[in-house]
């Protein structure tokens, strides 16, 4: 008797979300055809030639990013990991100090396999281990010297947390007083403007360099940019080539990034505002569940965490069955950060979530909790 074929979990999730009429977190996944068609949906002229080693539409994107951030220049990178490593390496060479102050939950510490140390010989120090950005006093009084302070805005793995504008200014000033440069991991800097009540150039202007992502928040295929002074960006381009980032053609990623800037960037304020509505409704829905919580409440951006006292595998299965059977998809993946039976998911409020009223959010969560009993 032929063995029953196992269903690929990724394919099952793809089909469940594609088949759902309503999504609370994230967006409906596109098919290959839809992804290809979306590249032609922006305003960029498609009658010209494709890019070659970073000219053409890639240059258009770089100029657009520099204009949005108010920097002298910007360079496109195929990945954010490469952009971050190049930025830190360049600043280490310019300051003569290979020590980088960052948070233990920062992206290079958690998600990049310590590439800054393995590839560039850099070392990190932690001004704080609290689940927040280091404050001015911690930076000023830190016992060891460092050449670069890297700040992740928002601090994703701590719950997409942001300081106040006053706190951010003070922390940057404390680094300057130590003759350190400041680099912003701004993968998601796009959605920080409502919280800070400042423009992108004002936020980016606090730092010496900024990295931004095109697939996080903006919904691009892939890619990132490193922005800052023209001389610094020129050096970064040299290291990009050495790291293998000088691709022959990158027009699909560049076109999707430009489309994301056009479509998503103007809507982020609306997403951030509705995230507060969704978070409040979720908090009400899980108020009677021991150990459940929304964090932070209210959210600082359009993303936040929801914690529930169930194993991740149980929550994933219940959510998939609900999507398959009712056409309502609430959340994406779940993670167990260390304590068995306690899991969290990252809620991302985008266009599909705008259709959900607080009552509908509460009803949807009630239906999910019922399946968990």
From TrEMBL:
This is Beta-eliminating lyase-related protein. It comes from the Bacteria. Belongs to the threonine aldolase family. Pfam families: Beta_elim_lyase. The keyword Lyase applies. The keyword Phosphoprotein does not apply. Keywords: Lyase, Pyridoxal phosphate. Its cofactor is pyridoxal 5'-phosphate. GO terms for molecular function: lyase activity. Residues 52-292 form the Aromatic amino acid beta-eliminating lyase/threonine aldolase domain.
């Amino acid at each position: 008797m032929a063995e029953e074929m196992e269903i690929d979990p990724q394919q099952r999730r793809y089909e469940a979300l594609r088949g759902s009429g309503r999504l609370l977190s994230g967006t409906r996944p596109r098919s290959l055809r839809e992804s290809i068609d979306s590249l032609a949906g922006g305003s960029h002229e498609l009658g010209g030639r494709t890019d070659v080693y970073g000219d053409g539409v890639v240059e258009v994107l770089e100029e657009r990013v520099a204009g949005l951030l108010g920097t002298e220049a910007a360079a496109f990178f195929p990945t954010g990991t490469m952009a971050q490593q190049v930025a830190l390496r360049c600043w280490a060479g310019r300051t003569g100090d290979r020590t980088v102050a960052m948070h233990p939950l920062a992206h290079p510490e958690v998600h990049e396999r310590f590439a800054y140390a393995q590839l560039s010989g850099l070392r990190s120090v932690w001004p704080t281990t609290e689940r927040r950005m280091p404050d001015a006093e911690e930076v000023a009084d830190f016992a060891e010297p460092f050449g670069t302070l890297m700040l992740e805005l928002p601090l994703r793995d701590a719950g997409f947390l942001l300081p106040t504008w006053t706190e951010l200014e003070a922390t940057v000033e404390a680094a300057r007083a130590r003759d350190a440069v400041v680099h912003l991991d701004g993968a998601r800097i796009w959605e920080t403007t409502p919280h800070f009540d400042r423009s992108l150039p004002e936020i980016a202007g606090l730092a010496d360099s900024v990295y931004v992502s095109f697939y996080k928040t903006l919904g691009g295929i892939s890619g990132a940019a490193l922005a800052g002074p023209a001389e610094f960006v020129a050096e970064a381009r040299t290291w990009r080539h050495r790291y293998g980032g000088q691709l022959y053609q990158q027009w699909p990623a560049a076109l999707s990034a430009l489309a994301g800037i056009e479509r998503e960037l103007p809507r982020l304020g609306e997403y951030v505002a509705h995230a507060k509505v969704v978070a409040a409704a979720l908090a009400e829905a899980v108020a009677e569940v021991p150990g459940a919580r929304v964090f932070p409440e209210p959210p600082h951006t359009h993303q936040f965490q929801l914690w529930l006292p169930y194993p991740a595998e149980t929550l994933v299965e219940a959510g998939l069955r609900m999507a398959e059977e009712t056409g309502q998809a609430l959340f994406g993946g779940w993670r167990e950060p260390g304590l068995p039976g306690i899991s969290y998911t990252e809620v991302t409020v985008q266009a599909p979530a705008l259709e959900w009223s607080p009552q509908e959010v509460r009803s949807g969560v009630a239906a999910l909790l019922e399946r968990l009993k």
